[in-house]
Amino acid sequence: MRRAKPATAGGRDLREGGAGAAAGEAGPERCGGADGLGGDQAGQAAAEGEEEEDEEEEEEEEEEEEEEEEEEEEEEEEEEEEEEEEEEEEEEEEEEEEEEEEEEEEEEEEEEEEEEEEEEEEEEEEEEEEEEEECETRDLRPGTAPPVLSSESIWIAYVPWRTLGLIALCAAALPAGRCNGAPAAPRVAGRNGKWLPPPGLTFAESLLP
């Protein structure tokens, strides 16, 4: 017996529908797999790009930190240099102050020495004035000798008058011929056993040997 067409047509349609369904099921799965692979690759590339950017930012931050540290070190070095300069200036000021103090001490010593010299000069002047006053007020009677015989004239002025008188008498009593070795005049006994000068001689001349 021959089969009916509807049955045949329906069967074909069913077979075609099953094949189409199978193809339709297989199609979406195949497209979805391709889309999934592409998304994974794009995500990996984006993640790698982000990581690279993060690394670059970290490197930049590290460089900035290093630069900041270097600047801080330079500032510290500058501060240390300034402190050293200040210490040197303080030392120089102290040395200048010490030198000024030494100069002041030397000036004070010089002033003291000058004052001592002036006092000594004043004392010497006072002593000279006292000596002059003593010389003026001293009693210069015959027979007194000066404390200092500075010249021959002063010595002659203070020689005792008796000695001068005797010397004058003796000098006047020397006969002219006596210097040539002439003998002395003989002595003559006078009245009452007294010696009398020889004729022509004075009493002072008769005292000479």
Plain-language structure description:
The chain is an all-alpha fold and 209 residues long. The chain has a domain at 152-209. The chain is 76% helix and 2% strand. The chain has helices at residues 5-137, 152-158, 161-173, 203-207, and strands spanning 188-189, 195-196. The chain has a two-stranded antiparallel sheet. The longest helix has 133 residues, at 5-137. Residues 22-31 have a biased composition (Low complexity). Residues 1-148 are annotated as: Disordered. Residues 48-136 have a biased composition (Acidic residues).
Which whole number gives the mean pLDDT?
Answer: 70
**Main β-sheet, in a few words?**
2 strands, antiparallel
Compute the CA-based radius of gyration.
76 Å
Q: How are the strands ordered across the major sheet? A: 1-2
Instruction: Tell how many strands the DSSP assignment holds.
Output: 2
Helix content: over 70%
- Count every helix, treating DSSP H or I runs of 4 or more residues as helices: 4
Percent of residues in β-strands: under 5%
| Poorly predicted ranges | 1-34, 176-182
> Tell me, what's the shape?
rod-shaped
Order of helices and strands: HHHEEH
Assembly annotation: single chain
Q: Class by helix and strand content?
A: mainly alpha
N/C terminus separation: 233 Å
